[in-house]
């Protein structure tokens, strides 16, 4: 099996409105796949469907060959598919280390333990140390998450997704709201921490997309209108029409 | 004034801190518990200490939900009451059967029973946090309370169920007649429960409880079930509340249906929140302050419940970190080295606050004398002040104090902010 | 059960259910608008009854029916403006705790002013007659008046929310507060008004319910939990759910009182008249339980059943 994720004819309606209208999408193992599309195309909804936040109306989501459509988020994460959020979604009153500790507990097999103190778990400490270094947050380890700067919070957000040990990651606009120089640093961080993993990413910064993605899928009005390498997408007339016809700003 | 979670005891102990230093406060508490009955020797004082210790355990158990998991339960009294009834029936049945079960271990039975019931209640209530959780726990508590009336053989009728704690015989060299014997049991159980709950806050499950408090949705996306965490926290809190209820049963030797009613649930919520949910020992502080208010203030003023409610509203509106928060910000202030520069302004604020407080007390006492206690006549003495509930002068005095205090407080607090701001700048430079 | 008992239970059940809905609708409006479950809602009901009693002593019942709810509404609006709005920054938990504190203080204040014993709040003389007779038993006019009042207020509220511009703004503020604020409407004022109107509705229920239910300091605490059962069973924030659940609870409680049956009677039908002594005290407890005793328990059993089988409530949108 070379596909990490296969989405087959996925649909989602809110009342009479169909937001996701028969999406078909394959994610190859180890590839960096970008999902682009104009505002309101349903990118975030698609992410919510895959990650189990909302239940699809119909269709299949095959992860490692098993249908995970409609499963609760925790089960999907345990199966090896985790996500980050567009709006920072961390544990604000807890320290950075505590944030990461929570996220590594399941994969290290500690579950809902209450027989040993967390500080005595050597594997948790080592893994958190490694993640802190990788994320560049070591100097902030004992600060509460809500006292971090915005790029640091974004790094922690990414860290929580990576820490769960999943081999497939969904990143929802990891660089949203960052300045140009911050974007560069964030991109390097993403490349570093997701090395060897399968990646599906929503992003608005086209420069970033065309630089990093192995393949790109274009979602317009709840349908994938094209999938291909950056060159193929650039040349695709349907994509040109969707973007240039709709708004020049988005294509910039 | 904002003391955030970074300063709570849960977080200050880093792994490199040696066991010796982190054990020190516990030794101090144990020593204090041993000294207390030597200082307060009268029977009624020891009885008061027993009550305070029981309430402190109860409030600590409640904070597992409120402070650590962010869950507002409106039915925690159920487990206090059920624990007490289970302990009472255990003593009655074991005494009938002629068993010599050691009395100090009876709270274990109450805790086990409450734990089982806590799992069941938690299974029903834990699906969602926030408002739904609050309402469901309230509904379940009312269900138990209403159903209790149907089973007089378990819960007794109006007069409740009584037992004699000496019926199980002597053990550990005590016969459990004197109140002091019960004090020993309460003190040891207080140490055990506090240590267990402190340990709980350090375990992975305790950490997950905090994460559910902070952001229940994200917990699902790191592989855990928020519902499961809530349920486990609920059951643990129930078990410790069962210990507290059992101790209350041993202390008073009687349990009534009221012990598992809404009044008990409200009492523990108010105690815990007033004490401070963000510090491990905040609830103990709340239990002591409110417990003493209940015992002493109720003797000298029929308005004590009103003060209790007003204090709660004050904490909710102005100082969500509770009394422990005020204490800790005081400690921080002392350490900051700028205390001397702030002292005059702080003294002024303290005086203004005091004047406002006196005004509030005067008005409340006058109102009670004019209403509920009108039969006692209009003449009264409050805080050594001769007052008259029919005199405009008395009422005016109260109003002037309150209005003046509130009006003066605002600019004073603004000036304190400005001062602290400039002091903070000075430090940076 | 005779046709007579059924008819009267239906009438009284509808009446009690509508009275509950008068309270539950205000609670639901406030909840869906501000996300705040107003724990003090039943306390506004209580001060409505006390104000109604006090004012009708001086100016009579009908002016009190207007004045008391206005006063209660003002109290509610002031509490929102100077209390609730300030704790908003501490989140919904802070707001809920604040309303618990308010409920606590109101109960104390009522005892401070009126004492601990029940008030002698009588049905007004103008309505103290028999409205109609069925099966030879009279139905009191005051109860009929309560029923008409409740239905009228329900209709007025429904019209206000669906047919007027005010209703549109309120409904829009429920879902899109920022947008409504951008359109130039004063959202805090809308919130304060909704809180005030919700409290006033509870006040009306207090004025007309006071003479039938007993006007005493514990009336808030005894009614409050039932209200929460109704909003959870109906589905949080759903007005139609609250309506159905109110009537359901109303019927359950009135019919339970009317059914004169105990476990012992059931066994009596098959010839067993004494509980087998060997089974102990618990069985004899259950033996003596009658349906009317179970009455107060049923709403909470309903709550548990709904939680297990339909956690979003009867009319709730999602869990």
Description:
The complex is a heterotrimer of chains A (252), B (429) and C (319). Helices cover 38% and strands 25% of the residues of chain A. Chain A has 252 residues and is α/β, with parallel strands linked by helices. Chain A has a single domain, classed as P-loop containing nucleotide triphosphate hydrolases (Rossmann fold, 3-Layer(aba) Sandwich), CATH 3.40.50. A six-stranded mixed β-sheet of chain A has the order 6-7-8-3-9-10, with helices on both faces. Chain A has a four-stranded antiparallel β-sheet with strand order 2-1-4-5, covered by helices on one side. In chain A, helix 3 runs parallel beside helix 5. The relative contact order of chain A is 0.18. With 429 residues, chain B is mainly alpha-helical. Chain B has two domains: 316 residues, Orthogonal Bundle (ABC transporter involved in vitamin B12 uptake, BtuC); 92 residues. Helix content of chain B is 73%, strand content 3%. In chain B, helix 3 runs parallel beside helix 8 and helix 8 packs antiparallel against helix 10. The longest helix of chain B is centred in the C-terminal third of the chain and has 37 residues. With 319 residues, chain C is mostly helical. Chain C has a domain of 215 residues. Chain C is 72% helix and 3% strand. Chain C contains 14 helices and two strands, in the order H-H-H-H-E-E-H-H-H-H-H-H-H-H-H-H. Chain C is globular. The mean pLDDT of chain C is 84. Chains B and C meet through helix 6, helix 7, helix 11 and helix 13 of B and helix 3, helix 4, helix 9, helix 12 and helix 14 of C.
